[in-house]
Structure formats: structure tokens, C-alpha cells
Amino acid sequence: MLNSCEVITFVATAKPTEARRFYQEVLGLRLVADESFALVFDAHGVMLRVSKVHELTPAPYTVLGWRVADISAALKELETRGVAFERYEGLDQDDLGIWASPSGAKVAWFKDPDGNTLSLTQF
């Protein structure tokens, strides 16, 4: 039933001013609307609603990610924009912080201003 419907993605923020700057200026997403309940972005044709909440406890796992063609280039570009990539004990990450999964996918993680874990993946 829903396989022909467009997906809407959600992430939450208790810091809407910082989140707007991060998603718009740092990640380069186009702001569609700044509504009373959410910041709305166009994420390559997918609606991303950054819900404005009073309190937020970030999930201990990845909540939003992007498929990239060249993870090293994307990571380096984000680093020039001030993004710091995460290191996780027990994961064999390279010098840039990229982990090669058993399937061969390459993954790197970073956080938004609220501490939500975001990722880049190259398949």
C-alpha cells in the first residue's frame, strides 16, 4: 500500500536555531519552511521534518543518514564545514573515521547540534 507513497523523514531538535543553521548551512539542505512545530527541509526530494521539541534525549543509534558516492570526499568536505566525525571503541575505523562493514559498505558517523547520530554510507 505505502510502496507508492513518498517517505517523510523526522528528527527532533530542542535547539531549532542551531539545527536550522546546521542542516541548512553545514549540510547544505534547502530550507522549505520554518513552521511553529518543525523546520522543513528538502533532502534530495525527500521531506525532512526537524521537529521542534522542548526536551530531547538523543537515541543511542543512527537516526538519519545519507548514501554518498565517495565517502572520503564527503567526509572531508563536511570537516571543512566544522563537522567532527565520531570514533567508536571496538570498530576498526580508518584514519578518517570510516568503518568498513562486513558487507563492504563504508560508514562514518557524526552528530547534529542536539547530539542525534547521523551517518554517511558508501555502498
Mean pLDDT: 97
By CATH, the architecture is named Roll
Shape: globular
CATH topology: 2,3-Dihydroxybiphenyl 1,2-Dioxygenase, domain 1
Major sheet: size, sense and barrel closure? 4 strands, mixed
> What are the segments in which pLDDT stays under 50 over at least 5 consecutive residues?
none
Number of domains: 1
Oligomeric organization of the protein chains: single chain
Strand order of the largest sheet: 1-4-3-2
Radius of gyration: 15 Å
Full CATH superfamily name = 2,3-Dihydroxybiphenyl 1,2-Dioxygenase, domain 1
Contiguous helical run count: 2
Report the order of strands and helices.
EHEEEEHEEE
Query: Which structural class is indicated by helix and strand composition?
Result: alpha/beta
CATH class: Alpha Beta
Estimate percent helicity: 10-25%
How many strand segments? 8
Strand content: 35-45%
- Give the distance, in angstroms, between the N- and C-terminal Cα atoms: 28 Å
Please provide a brief summary of the model.
The protein is an alpha/beta fold. It has helices spanning 16-26, 71-80, and strands at 8-13, 30-34, 38-43, 46-52, 62-67, 99-100, 106-111, 117-122.
